[in-house]
Amino acid sequence: MSDDAKHLTVHADIRVANPARLGHPSDERLGEAIAELIRRHAWEAGLEIVDPASVQVTVGG
Asked: Would the N or C end of the chain have less CB density within 10 A of its end CB?
């Protein structure tokens, strides 16, 4: 990271509007898929995940 880098912690409440479009995944699979999406696409968005293992997704209420 450069000296002018910012450090963020993000929490997001995500609703799957159309589970059928995703093939009705299990809660576990849905969590894994969202975590993988974040890990893979962060760099494309100009972000660096300092600790990829820290990306955790909890599914359910």
From this structure: C
Q: Which residues contact 57 (CB under 8 A, 6 or more apart)?
A: 30, 31, 32, 34, 35, 38
Rounded to an integer, what distance in angstroms lies between the CA atom of residue 33 and that of residue 25? 9
- What letters, b where the CB count within 10 A reaches 16 and e where it falls short, cover 33-45? ebeeebeeeeeee
Whether the full predicted model's pTM is greater than 0.85, yes or no, is: no
Residue-wise pLDDT for 2-61, tens only, equals: 668 888 888 888 888 888 998 998 988 888 888 888 888 988 888 888 888 888 888 886
For residues 54 and 46, give the distance between their C-alpha atoms in angstroms, rounded to a whole number: 18
Cβ pair 2, 10 in contact under 8 A: no
